[in-house]
Write a structure and sequence with these properties.
3 domains, six-stranded antiparallel β-barrel, Elongation Factor Tu (Ef-tu), domain 3, 4 helices, mainly beta, Double Stranded RNA Binding Domain
């Protein structure tokens, strides 16, 4: 079940206290239950995948094509449809639902979400440029990015040149985020640290793609407790 990714909403941040007195900042995610709408067969499309539906939507807000799609699949309309690649489709059937419980035995997850949009930003803020000198004849261009082009040859500004422009509002994935705890009754997931995006922004949570040997917070605390219990060597 770990191949499945779930969509959630970033509620905000709080902190979790451990018995050792450590305080860990956590982000609270409200996870939507995903329902399998269609199982994609490799004979039809050349790959195995499942289509998951998230969230509710009114019939009046659907297009005719989507109304027909959900009627054909004999399922209630879903706001978001996500297609996820899986190795084999034996364990998945249309109508199956998945929630926070799929992350029960998982320690680390990857989270993808949209960063906060900063609007039009200058080169100093956007790319960490140093700017021009504060004195010695520099006139009204202290925060400018300086020259961007070359000489007569090539006589143009290359694409992807670091310049002022739209900053933020991009999809970013943060890897190996530790799950501190989960609350299946309220569909809440508590992950360590911060994640991109503003409050109520949509996030995609899936099992960490990399195999990490990092210790979790509970494992670290257990190790500290064990060290405390080891008696010190008697002085000669």
């Amino acid at each position: 079940m770990t191949e499945i990714a779930l969509i959630g909403k970033k509620i905000g941040m709080t902190r979790e206290f451990y018995k050792t007195g450590q305080s860990v900042p956590v982000t609270v995610l409200k996870i939507e239950k995903g329902r399998i709408i269609e199982v994609i067969d490799p004979k039809k499309r050349g790959y195995t995948a499942i289509q998951l539906g998230f969230g509710k939507i009114k019939n009046s807000k659907l297009t005719k094509a989507m109304k027909g799609f959900f009627t054909k699949k004999n399922t209630e309309p879903r706001k978001i449809i996500k297609e996820l690649r899986v190795k084999n489709t034996e364990n998945y059937k249309p109508g199956n639902e998945f929630g926070v419980e799929i992350f029960k035995d998982i320690k680390f997850v990857d989270i993808r979400s949209k960063t906060i949009g900063k609007g039009f930003a200058g080169a100093m803020k956007r790319h960490n440029f140093a700017g021009l000198r504060a004195s010695h004849g520099v006139s009204i261009s202290h925060r400018a990015h300086g020259s961007t082009g070359q000489n007569q040859d090539p006589g143009k500004v290359f694409k992807n040149k670091k310049m002022a422009g739209h900053m933020g509002d991009k999809l970013r994935t943060i890897q190996n985020i530790e799950i501190i705890k989960s609350d299946p009754e309220n569909d809440l997931l508590f992950v360590k640290g911060s994640i991109p995006g503003s409050k109520n922004s949509e996030v995609l949570v899936k099992k960490a793609s990399k195999n990490t040997s990092k210790l979790t917070m509970s494992e670290k605390i257990e190790a500290i407790e064990k060290l405390k219990k080891v008696p010190e060597k008697k002085k000669k």
